[in-house]
């Protein structure tokens, strides 16, 4: 999942043309994330329907297709078979938004079906080939059916008119995941055991947005997350937007996360945008991400990812109509991922956790009414 979160980070860094809210509208996005042995393509649509002046209904639908060329590590897994993996992830959400003079409340229901990352798809194929034919005492391998659903509540307070906003949110997510498997030594015999199949995640966040003056705005968020069989994860994200003149805008963002006993991650992103004439703008964005690797168990075989760092840079061309009711953008750029060497117990997954050079592209359109 870690690599997937890193990927999502760069997709989010591309920005959006329209944010969900009280203004009725619709947006569509198509993205591609491609390298030699992995292809990820997605299409997403979002919209806002006005129910009455102080209430709206936000919705979103996404389809994501993953194609993975599974290649086992031959010296460690000589009987593994090369194969082509495919999966389609379907996601959706619906949110009821109510707004008063100073408050905005949002209740969101979301759900998905399918593998949420190519890493989970790859790892499940490894376990299928190892244990899918049976022959070991204990549990048997089962074809996974990953899905999940979540509930979230958030309240946003305008505590200083048009200059300071404070948001509190709480969420719950249930994931039915593809479990891991391991052979347990019982002393006189061995038995196949299955890992967690259901993960319960609780999270809470506080976000502070401030307009410092006519040319700068900041955003800080603190989030606490607790997932089944894991320690609490603390994370911070901060952003600063600066107008550097009549045509230049700089956007800086940093993030940090920590989870005991040994996981840490941080990232920094810098974007610079220049406004051309007639509603056109061009920008360049660079991002760096680094972490210490997933927390490994003491098992003989572990699918925990080693330390990862990624680098990316992309260009965006954006156009907005004179009345501001529609917009279009296109982004493209390289994304480089580098893993530390796999260690004892993880060398079976060397074909998954290897350096890759990706290309990312995104096309988006929005329309408000």
Q: What do you see in this structure?
A:
By secondary structure, this protein is mainly beta. It has one domain (2-368): Porin (Beta Barrel). 7% of the residues lie in helices and 60% in strands. It has 2 helices and 18 strands. The chain has helices spanning 2-13, 118-131; strands at residues 25-34, 38-52, 55-70, 83-99, 103-113, 147-160, 164-176, 181-185, 190-194, 198-213, 216-227, 233-243, 248-259, 263-275, 280-291, 308-320, 326-339, 356-368. It has a 16-stranded antiparallel β-barrel. Strands 8-9 form a two-stranded antiparallel ribbon. Strand 1 (25-34) and strand 2 (38-52) form a beta hairpin. The longest helix has 14 residues, at 118-131. The radius of gyration is 22 Å and the shape is globular. The model is unreliable at 1-21 (pLDDT under 50).
Topology:
Layout: H1 2-13, E1 25-34, E2 38-52, E3 55-70, E4 83-99, E5 103-113, H2 118-131, E6 147-160, E7 164-176, E8 181-185, E9 190-194, E10 198-213, E11 216-227, E12 233-243, E13 248-259, E14 263-275, E15 280-291, E16 308-320, E17 326-339, E18 356-368
Antiparallel strand pairs: 1-2, 1-18, 2-3, 3-4, 4-5, 5-6, 6-7, 7-10, 8-9, 10-11, 11-12, 12-13, 13-14, 14-15, 15-16, 16-17, 17-18
């Amino acid at each position: 999942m870690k690599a997937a979160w890193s990927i999502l980070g760069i997709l989010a860094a591309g920005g959006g043309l329209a944010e969900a809210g009280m203004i009725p509208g619709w947006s569509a996005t198509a993205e591609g994330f491609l390298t030699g042995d992995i292809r990820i393509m997605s299409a997403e649509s979002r919209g806002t329907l006005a129910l009455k002046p102080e209430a709206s209904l936000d919705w979103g639908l996404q389809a994501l297709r993953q194609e993975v060329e599974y290649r086992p590590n031959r010296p460690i897994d000589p009987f593994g078979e090369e194969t082509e993996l495919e999966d389609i992830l379907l996601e959706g959400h619906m949110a009821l938004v109510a707004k008063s003079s100073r408050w905005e409340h949002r209740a969101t229901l979301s759900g998905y079906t399918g593998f949420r990352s190519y890493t989970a798809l790859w790892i499940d194929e490894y376990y299928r080939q190892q244990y899918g034919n049976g022959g070991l005492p204990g549990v048997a391998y089962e074809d996974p059916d990953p899905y999940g659903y979540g509930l979230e509540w958030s309240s946003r307070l305008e505590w200083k008119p048009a200059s300071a906003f404070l948001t509190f949110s709480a969420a719950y997510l249930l994931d039915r995941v593809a479990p891991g498997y391991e052979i347990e030594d019982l002393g006189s015999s061995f038995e196949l055991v299955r890992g967690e199949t259901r993960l319960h995640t609780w999270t809470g966040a506080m976000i502070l947005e401030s307009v410092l003056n006519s040319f700068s705005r900041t955003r800080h968020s603190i989030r606490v997350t607790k997932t089944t069989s894991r320690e609490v994860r603390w994370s911070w994200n901060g952003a600063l937007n600066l107008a550097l003149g009549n045509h230049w805008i700089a956007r800086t963002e940093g993030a940090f996360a920590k989870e005991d006993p040994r996981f840490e991650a941080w990232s920094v992103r810098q974007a610079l945008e220049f406004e051309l004439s007639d509603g056109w703008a061009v920008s360049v964005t660079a991002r760096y991400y680094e972490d210490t690797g997933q927390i490994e168990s003491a098992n003989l075989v572990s699918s925990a990812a080693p330390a990862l760092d990624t680098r990316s840079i992309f260009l965006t061309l954006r156009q907005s109509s004179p009345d501001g009711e529609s917009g279009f953008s296109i982004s493209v750029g390289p994304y480089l991922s580098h893993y530390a060497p796999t260690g004892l117990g993880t060398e079976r997954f060397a074909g998954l956790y290897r350096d890759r050079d990706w290309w990312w592209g995104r096309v988006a359109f929005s329309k408000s009414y």
